[in-house]
């Protein structure tokens, strides 16, 4: 007999490997929401998201921009009176939504995260202009002009290298990555 | 001269070259030898963790393992995001032998092994703890008299270290700024987030977060905002013009790394600190007065 795992338990299982208390201990006090510097840009407050997970509102959670609006400042984590690592829970939700390929339309976060990892796997280092290709297509014309001016300014100031750097033992590095994620030949 | 395994991180090779210059100059002047570890890789910032947690730990662990090979005891990062990743990865691997085994299995491919023996520290902590305020005061050639500085700690240098007593209202940055003769301001937003990578993924949110930080510093009459992290520095400095456009403000306040300010006070030439690129008239006045 196989019992189907509830959404709530899936998330709890993913958080089991992390470092705070389980979200079942949440008091719904709202300290996290009151602390969060990005809360006004979230569809649901962190407190509400925890409540929604506990109620198994999977579709609503996957359709929310809340965790992709988390900047990982960890203020909620250090203040939570129930000891829940809420910022880490936001990472768990990001992973879950990437894994399910299900996230709110128009978000840049998921593509950015995947592009970042791909870039590092390819070179061992991060390099801003490569990342730009993930988000520039989403920009409006006016935003593009601003971004171009900012980037040109940085190049002129010598702050933006024109060529990406690579680590020396890149082959070893990539084999190391493959021991964690079997990427096939596409990496 | 005490030696440290130094991990600059990617930003210090590009957007934060001025931080790299000033960090190394100030360390040298204070008798701290920063030995850059060989062939280090990106720490992942905040972008690996949404994709794969184990990979994130492995990439950070590679740098720690390279540092362990040097025989030095302290792993020093000038970037708060790099610091946070290294600090917690080191701690988690020590606490969880299964996780460490899995990571070490991958590290074998680069002939590395992590034992979790490094003492992971942020550069500002090294300066404060291993040199000390008294010694710093003694070495100040040009106290930054009258320079009003908003000490901006940011997030990841402090959090999520719950065991750290200074997590809510730290004072060490203020103490350091006083020691170099400047006037640290009471800056209530000092541990409020700058938006970090939201500047890319949710610009509207990040610009609002930056606006709040700029506004308070300017309202309190700051001449300069001092930072301890390249991401904070870039958001507060490079995106000021975009904040102005978005909100119709006319903010114009210099943002400098704490090492640039320290370097000026220690009497190091501005161009060796990367300061020439960002004119700070008031700071120059203070130094030349």
Keywords:
heterodimer, A: 187 residues, mainly alpha, Fumarate Reductase Iron-sulfur Protein, Chain B, domain 2, 2 domains, 10 helices, 52% helix, globular, B: 289 residues, alpha/beta, Glutathione S-transferase Yfyf (Class Pi), Chain A, domain 2, Rossmann fold, four-stranded parallel beta sheet, 13 helices, 8 strands, 47% helix
Biggest interface reads: A-B, 61 and 65 residues
First-residue to last-residue Cα separation of chain A: 39 Å
Taking strands numbered 1, 2, ... along the chain, how are they ordered across the largest sheet of chain B?
2-1-3-4
Could you list the spans of chain A in which at least 5 consecutive residues all have pLDDT below 50? none
Order of helices and strands of chain A: HHHHHHHHHH
The CATH homologous superfamily of the largest domain in chain A is named Alpha-helical ferredoxin
Q: How do the SSEs of chain B run, as a string of H and E?
A: EHEHEHHEHHEHEHHEHHEHH
Largest sheet of chain B: 4 strands, parallel
Q: Classify the fold: give the CATH topology of the largest domain in chain A.
A: Fumarate Reductase Iron-sulfur Protein, Chain B, domain 2
Largest β-sheet summary of chain A: none
Extract low-pLDDT stretches of chain B: none
Overall 3D shape of chain B:
globular
Q: Which bin fits the share of residues in helices of chain A? A: 40-55%
| Rg calc of chain A | 19 Å
Helix content of chain B: 40-55%
What is the CATH C level class of the largest domain in chain A, in words? Mainly Alpha
Strand content bin of chain A: under 5%
